[in-house]
Design a protein that fits this description.
Largest sheet: 3 strands, antiparallel
Mean pLDDT: 88
Radius of gyration: 22 Å
Low-confidence stretches: none
Strand order of the largest sheet: 2-1-3
Number of helices: 9
Shape: elongated
Strand content: 5-15%
């Protein structure tokens, strides 16, 4: 038995994908994809990703990562509806969750949850007090990195403090 016939017996006939029907409109999105190795329908998952304007090569890479590690992060250029994407991927044995910095954070609520004043919060977490005031008063918005940092403070303030302390004692 040749390698080719053995592979066809194990994986089915080779599939050539020339045109993938793509969604007409949507917004970009970042997602954490997870799957159990035995449940993954790799071709279906790759096509679901390619349908959202991910190149076939990128979709293939993402599915390989899913197969090898059980999880991957993808940035899809065009998602028409997150619920439809979730349904398409669920049919392939893949779960998804939004990934990345939140679109908006309530800086005042995060600070107040720590029980600190603006000056104390800024001092403990290495922020400029004037910038913190501007965020809280709506004069400016935190950028993506700052939103991620603030979200981490909201969820794990002690871990952030420990990381900041560890960085200052190492030389």
């Amino acid at each position: 038995m040749s390698i080719r016939s053995w592979l066809e017996e194990r994986a089915g006939p080779r599939v050539r994908v020339r045109d993938v029907p793509r969604v007409a409109s949507g917004s970009p999105g970042r997602f954490l994809l997870e799957s159990e190795r035995g449940r993954l329908n790799a071709p279906g998952a790759a096509l679901a990703l390619a349908k959202r304007h991910l190149s076939l090569r990128q979709a293939h890479t993402a599915v390989n990562e899913l197969f090898d590690h059980g999880r991957t992060i993808v940035a899809l250029p065009m998602v028409e509806d997150a619920a439809v994407l979730e349904s398409d991927l669920a049919a392939c044995g893949v779960t998804l969750a939004p990934y990345g910095a939140p679109e908006a954070v309530d800086v005042r609520a995060i600070r107040e949850a720590t029980g600190l004043s603006q000056e104390g919060f800024a001092l403990q977490f290495g922020l400029d007090p004037a910038t913190l005031r501007n965020w809280e008063q709506g004069r400016s918005e935190p950028d993506t990195a700052a939103r991620s940092f603030l979200q981490t403070i909201a969820r794990h303030p002690d871990a952030v403090r420990m990381a900041l302390t560890a960085g200052s004692t190492e030389r």
